[in-house]
Specification:
Strands 1, 2, 3, 4, 5, 6, 7, 8, 9 and 10 form a ten-stranded mixed β-sheet that branches. The protein contains five helices and ten strands. The protein is of the alpha+beta class.
């Protein structure tokens, strides 16, 4: 019997990160990568390695995380889409499965990523949806935050917004979108798109923008912090639950 040829597939994933200890497989904790790999093993009867476009941290969510895998299974893309969604728990969904050339690499071929952070700025905390926002009681100066966000556009060294242990060759990134929007009823969304992100970069930026909104930093201070490359000058890391990986684009 002729041996099955290798196939490569790309998955688009949506998940609620609340009960996951991040993306990357770990020894004891529940992770997104391990959960999907276990389902793939059931379907293919192989040990399949799922490569994500990048790691999301514990508590961070995704609407459009991208991941790739190779297999010698004869199953097609539709079978993987339907089969995985029947095996996966309710907090992970495969939104799409597409065949790809064998040269495809889910991490190395990334051109840009889009993250969105949700803030709820009102006195009363939410009961429903609290696992998806950062609730801030004190009023925020959103006009100052909007102006400060715009100073991050362009190619810069983002070392001042880098968390410890960031796996990278350098800390220079190109940001093509950095926008704060007011969506009503105290809801704010911060969108940022770049060719790559450092560890905790988005959450450190959001924490700094909130410091501006609270009047502890001036909007011009954000550019000075960026240029200083000094993490100690930036704001505290925003909590993970407000952060969503929205989309990944490829070369």
């Amino acid at each position: 019997m002729e041996e099955a040829q290798q196939q490569t597939f790309k998955l688009i994933l949506e998940y609620d990160g609340s009960a996951f200890h991040g993306w990357q497989r770990q020894t004891k904790d529940r992770t997104v990568q391990e959960t999907i790999e276990n389902a793939l093993a059931v379907m293919t009867r192989e040990r399949v390695t799922l490569i994500g476009s990048g790691r999301t941290d514990a508590g961070v969510h995704a609407i459009g995380q991208s991941a790739g895998f190779t297999t010698r299974s004869r199953l097609d893309a539709r079978a993987f889409l339907n089969g995985l969604n029947s095996l996966l728990p309710d907090d992970v969904v495969v939104r799409a499965c597409d065949p790809m050339p064998d040269s495809f690499h889910a991490r190395f071929d990334v051109r840009s990523k889009h993250y969105r952070y949700h803030i709820l700025n009102r006195r009363i905390a939410p009961a429903i949806g609290r696992q998806f926002v950062w609730h801030i009681r004190k009023p925020l100066d959103t006009a100052a935050m909007i102006q400060a966000a715009g100073t991050l556009l362009g190619t810069h060294d983002f070392k001042a917004f880098e968390g410890a242990g960031s796996p990278r060759q350098h800390s220079i990134r190109t940001v093509t979108d950095s926008t704060l929007a007011i969506t009503g009823d105290g809801k704010l969304t911060y969108d940022i798109q770049a060719n790559g992100f450092l560890r905790f970069m988005v959450r450190n930026i959001v924490g700094t923008l909130v410091e501006v909104g609270l009047g502890r930093l001036d909007k011009q201070d954000v550019r000075a912090i960026l240029q200083s490359k000094d993490r100690s000058r930036a704001g505290a890391t925003a909590p993970p639950q407000g952060l969503f990986l929205m989309d990944v684009t490829y070369k």
